[in-house]
């Protein structure tokens, strides 16, 4: 028997036996291993039993599947391999056994109906090595707070953006958060749908600070 240990940051979140010929990993509830994180696609990757071993296959995910710092399409798993999916790690143990079966390993809640949050893996790795110091945007998804660190010099918000916001007349990129040194600015793309900062509509741009609230089409994003 082999198993996967799910790790968020440095904290183990659970273990799942690889007890099926093919096990899907992703955000959707029909996956065998459900990971509740907007940086992970609904059907992100699959772990396939091949002969005496297992192979990891990317499912065309938006943010990619990484092993040993390398983005992979298909990778034969070795004992101790660390699969990186956004801020989650899956650690492969070729001889381990978990008390949790695949059917029991699903989380009680998942965001399968939400849009995937795009993650810059290189920027994420740099931010984690540099430590804190950057602002984050916090969304409410599925009744939970989802923090998104502002890793890039420009982070987009909209229906087809780094931070997805749905709504009537919301543009593909409705707003941008621009970072210059230690300062942040919120820039509206204009159009019919208003971008509000602390309740006031912004026509061009405004400075951002911790505690501010951005509102677009009923979605509120808190700056922290």
Question: Can you give a write-up of this model?
Answer:
This protein has 224 residues and is mostly beta strands. It has 1 helix and 22 strands. A 6-stranded antiparallel β-sheet has the order 2-1-11-10-7-8, with no helix packed on it. The radius of gyration is 19 Å and the shape is elongated. The N and C termini lie far apart (43 Å).
> What global shape is seen?
elongated
Strand neighbour order, sheet with most strands? 2-1-11-10-7-8
User: How would you characterize the largest beta sheet?
Assistant: 6 strands, antiparallel
Low-confidence stretches: 107-113, 127-132
Question: What is the SS-derived class?
Answer: mainly beta
Estimated radius of gyration: 19 Å
Oligomer kind: single chain
